[in-house]
């Protein structure tokens, strides 16, 4: 911000790093980095405990140390922590102040529109490009005359993202500065390492904990959809295990197939105990196709099992043959409502061949049904939920759960529809009455339900009853499971 930059007027780099007058600022700069690496949040007191100029100069010092440290993982942790801190301050600003700050930062241009914020669509796409799917998708936002309109909460969250991305891009420290202040920066770096070591038992631990957070921030990749083979090998990598080559190859090629660039993959490996940047970069860039003719395809489940990378399948794994199919299956809830409903119908009716008229009849019954529900869904007994047309929260046991693949042929077309589905019945604890449910195609929900069944525990579900037309021209009432709660 221009007002903060004024504090730097007349301050030289040598005085900033050497002068006793700036000792407090140097200490605050180090504290910024320590607290961001250890907790993910910058913990420094504002005025009157610390002088405002010292806080701002401390920020400059932290950036200098980061740029000279040449460790992108640290830069990223600090960027996320700084962005969270900024978000905290933005929450206290009036709407006009938010617009002024956003426009002064200059990465996106914003205009206030009543109590909402109007952003040019190109700015929005650039700023939200690394936020995970769902509501951040442009298609879920709505664009009018090239403008995306956001409410205050969403706008502040977007600002956090703008700041994070901006701070991840750190300029290289100029050579002469690096050389002139090598010793001083070295001292600062070792001071940070020492603090990390004392406080949290080693820099690598801090980095690896924070790395887990960093992967959640990876572009459009969502770790919750990844198969067990990916998650367990990643966990090993982050707990300091030297992964064998087949596991590294799998992680790299899997992420590359999901459009992660080499730099994002490099960041994951940066905390491996045997990390050597040039060697890892060579391998990663080769596998992701940056320095080879095309990216390598990730291995199939059979290969991963034979090379010891597969830790053993879960019930979804048993329906697929490739880890990418697993990931894609887990994106079912992102499909359009009508597509999801049609797939649920095909799976539930268990028909072999697509029958347009019959499907349309059932789809019409669903009307404008969607899978969302409000926070205050009423809790009901299962028997009462069955008689009530609204969504209900029910506590149930899973009496049957079977996962299997369904293939539906399309007449006159070589294509077919493939649906991995779970059929299930639910009941109240200690009751003999089972209630049939629509087949589940959302495996995010299905896997949690299966886990409850395996553990014989109760599980809370959001359900809604619906009537379905079966082939014999009869109607049948079943529960649609909307979500798992708790
Ligand atoms: S079966 Fe395939 S997807 Fe599942 S854990 Fe093993 S390798 Fe991964």
Which properties best describe this structure?
binds iron/sulfur cluster; OB fold (Dihydrolipoamide Acetyltransferase, E2P); alpha+beta
What compounds sit in this structure?
Answer: iron/sulfur cluster
Task: Find the count of extended strands (DSSP E, 2+ residues).
Answer: 10
What is the CATH topology of the largest domain? OB fold (Dihydrolipoamide Acetyltransferase, E2P)
Structural class by helix and strand composition: alpha+beta
Individual helix count: 21
Distance between the termini: 43 Å
How large, in whole angstroms, is the Cα Rg? 27 Å
Q: Give the biggest sheet.
A: 6 strands, mixed
Q: Uncertain segments of ≥5 residues (pLDDT<50)?
A: 199-208, 210-218
What number of domains?
3
* Shape, principal axes of CA atoms: globular
Average predicted local confidence, pLDDT: 84
β-sheet strand percentage: 5-15%
Helix share bin: 40-55%
Q: Name the CATH class of the largest domain.
A: Mainly Beta
What is the CATH architecture descriptor of the largest domain?
A: Beta Barrel
